Amino acid sequence: MKNQANPRPLDGLRVLELGQLLAGPFTTSILGYYGAEVIKVEPPGTGDPIRTWRVMKDGVSLWWHSLGRNKKCVTVNLRNAEGREIVRQLAAKSDILVENFRPGAMEKWGLGPDDLRRTHPELIYARISGYGQTGPYASRTGFASVCEGVGGFRYVNGFPGQAPVRPNLSLGDTLAAVHCVIGVLLACVHRFKDQGAGGQVIDTAIYEAVFNMMEGVVPEYSGAGVVREPSGSTLTGIVPTNTYRCRDGKFVIIGGNGDSIYKRLMHAMGRADLAEDPRMANNAGRVQHEKELDVAITAWTSTLSSTEVLGALERVDVPAGPIYSVVDMMNDEHFRARGLFETVQVDGRDLTIPAMAPLLSDTPGRTEWPGPAIGAHNQEIFGGLLGFSDADLRRLQDQGVI
Question: Which residues are tagged catalytic?
């Protein structure tokens, strides 16, 4: 792990996390990595379901040790009135609250932004849901998989005439978390620039985070009636840029779509005829002859190993690269030189987890501890921060409140 003495940009801020699974918890993972104190509230006994998702070891998800890093985990039964009162007390001592329940749930419990900000107007209240807090779809269940479709990503991702493809990741949740972090930081800037401004509510919708990635699809349709369709491994209207198989069966990505880059690519391939072909002088011409160019590039890459292809293109400064698995990433010297892996101790064993980006020169983020056990910080937070006595804690635990 990194030097513990380094200051971090969010040192001194306290974040209360309410919710589970990915979008909300990843938001707070980022905030905690850069210095915020994160108090994660989980239901007693079971905790966040992510603790038992995917690959597990010793009864705990390996993913949890990364997603739960730097968090102080407490247990509170939100369905209990006394439990909700504990959350109100925690919120009163927090700068930021992040929740990703279905819209209306927090209001039903008396924990909505109007309820909490009435007595704590400086509270920044960040909400993540599938479709946002308003509008006709607000009450719908909003899983990332569905929202990726509604937000436009799934439509353009895949091959023509085939079923849309999803990446083997919860992309919508992660994008929503990054957008939520941006919203929180913008609200912090506003609050700190104007001391009388107070907090505000950040309404992040998963489908809108996906929609925000759709580049030019809206103006292209509005201005020219063009609907961007799926195009496999190419990028519509930009040529050549594609994925090509090499002699060793591996694939490489080649981006030769700049005019001068295209010429360097063709000369590296020994195709001076295509390099100087006036039909290919600019991108518009190359788009018209995309299939011809892809056939020529594939004919070249199929005679060489992926290492030979990448070496030849690096020598002439043509953007190209391999397609990495996690094994490739963890063995790559550049990943290691950039500090993209951190080692934590889990039950006395080393576990490698990913570092987080961006890299800050003076106030870098860091992992101080991996995801802790359920309720690991009950004593510290309830006893220390809220001042509950040992007798109070025993009673609350016996009654299932914590």
Answer: 173
